[in-house]
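Example record for the data management plan.
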Amino acid sequence: MTDVHIATLSLGSYNGATHLPLVKVPNGYGGITVLEAHLVGPGAGTAIGGLLVTLTDVGTPAVNGTIGSFAGTVVTAAGVPSALTVSSAYVADDYWIGFDQTSGTVPAGTFIVMSYVTGKAA
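Corresponding structural encoding:
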């Protein structure tokens, strides 16, 4: 049985001007497989089209893949989690996991809770 890990990734206040690196997958451990993730806001925000993405680790991180999207257009509300629809779960060594969005503003204090396993899950 593989151990499931949980990480809380802080977004803070975010206005999709560019992608935001959140956590780096360390080199030499076989990457990770994202099982699920939820975006949680502490209050009302505008409608956002949120994405969990992979970013390169060369110079300024650049988006090079999409892990998944938060179902449709999310409007944050206090304590209401919005689920990620995972489309590409595996993230290789030495890549960043980040947040990007197509519209809207994320309120201050927003975070993502992500469950994952180490390595490439079947």
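Summary line stored alongside the record: The longest strand covers residues 106-118.
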